[in-house]
Structures are given as structure tokens and as C-alpha cells.
């Protein structure tokens, strides 16, 4: 299973970040949701700020490129194996920074990857 940090997590059930957190958890992945507001998803507390987390395999993004800038150092310091850029989060600058550090980048939809068994 792939420990995944969901950046841009929300308690709003209509948001894709909520559904992704829920589905990742249901597929047996350890999930670390990080958002700007307190709350929980499926009993998993949403972390705020830049929590100290180890062993992250995947960061899946649900923040637009402008909001990602504040998290560049944090994301790269996590040393994930890959970063998934969900629709609307594509960011050439972060992709370049990640690739320079040997981090795989994928422009894809976490929900589709999970449904196809390709996560």
C-alpha cells in the first residue's frame, strides 16, 4: 500500500479531495489529508500547515498552481516517490523541481487511477 498525502483536503463531501481521501482509505492506503481547515474525513483528522510526516510514497495535489507555491519546499522535503497532478493542478514549475530531485510526476486523476487499479 502507498502512504499518500492529500494536499488540499476538504471536509466538503462534494470536493474531489474528500472523495480521493475516502477512496484511498477504502482501498487500504494510509492517508494523510492536509488542508487549511480543521475537520476529518472518514474519521481521519485533516492536518493543517506542514505536518512532519515520514514515509510518504505519493503526494496527490488538489491545490491550483498558485496555491502550491507556498508548499514547494514542504512537498520536496517529504521526498515522495511521486507527485500526482490532478486535473486543474498541473504545474510545470513544480514538475521541473520534482524531476530535478528524482521524483516521478504524473498528470492524472487519483480517482481514475484507483478505479482502474493503476494507483
Q: How much β-strand is present in the residues?
A: 15-25%
The CATH homologous superfamily name equals NAD(P)-binding Rossmann-like Domain
Order of strands across the biggest sheet? 5-2-1-6-7-8
* Biggest β-sheet strands, sense, barrel: 6 strands, parallel
The average pLDDT value, as a whole number, equals: 97
The DSSP helix count reads 5
**What would CATH call the architecture?**
3-Layer(aba) Sandwich
Coarse shape: globular
Distance between the termini: 10 Å
Sheet/helix structural class: alpha/beta
- What's the CATH class, please? Alpha Beta
Which stretches are low in confidence, meaning pLDDT under 50 for 5 or more residues running?
A: none
Helix content: 25-40%
H/E series: EHEEEEEHHEHEH
Question: What is the strand tally?
Answer: 8
Q: Whole-number radius of gyration?
A: 13 Å
CATH level-3 fold name: Rossmann fold
- Tell me the number of structural domains: 1
Written description of the protein model:
This protein is an alpha/beta fold. The longest helix is centred in the first third of the chain and has 11 residues, at 16-26. The protein has helices spanning 16-26, 65-68, 72-77, 92-100, 110-116, and strands at 4-7, 31-35, 40-41, 44-45, 47-48, 58-61, 82-85, 104-107. The chain is built from 5 helices and 8 strands. Helices cover 31% and strands 23% of the residues. It has one domain: NAD(P)-binding Rossmann-like Domain (Rossmann fold, 3-Layer(aba) Sandwich).
Amino acid at each position: 500500500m502507498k502512504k499518500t498525502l492529500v494536499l488540499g483536503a476538504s471536509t466538503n463531501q462534494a470536493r474531489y479531495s474528500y472523495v480521493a481521501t475516502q477512496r484511498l482509505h477504502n482501498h487500504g492506503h494510509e492517508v494523510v489529508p492536509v488542508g487549511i481547515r480543521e475537520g476529518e474525513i472518514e474519521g481521519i483528522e485533516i492536518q493543517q500547515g506542514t505536518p512532519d510526516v515520514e514515509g510518504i510514497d505519493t503526494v496527490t495535489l488538489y491545490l491550483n498552481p498558485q496555491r502550491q507555491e507556498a508548499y514547494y519546499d514542504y512537498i520536496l522535503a517529504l521526498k515522495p516517490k511521486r507527485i500526482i497532478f490532478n486535473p486543474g493542478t498541473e504545474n510545470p514549475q513544480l514538475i521541473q523541481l520534482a524531476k530535478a530531485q528524482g521524483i516521478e510526476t504524473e498528470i492524472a486523476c487519483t480517482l481514475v487511477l484507483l478505479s482502474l487499479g493503476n494507483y
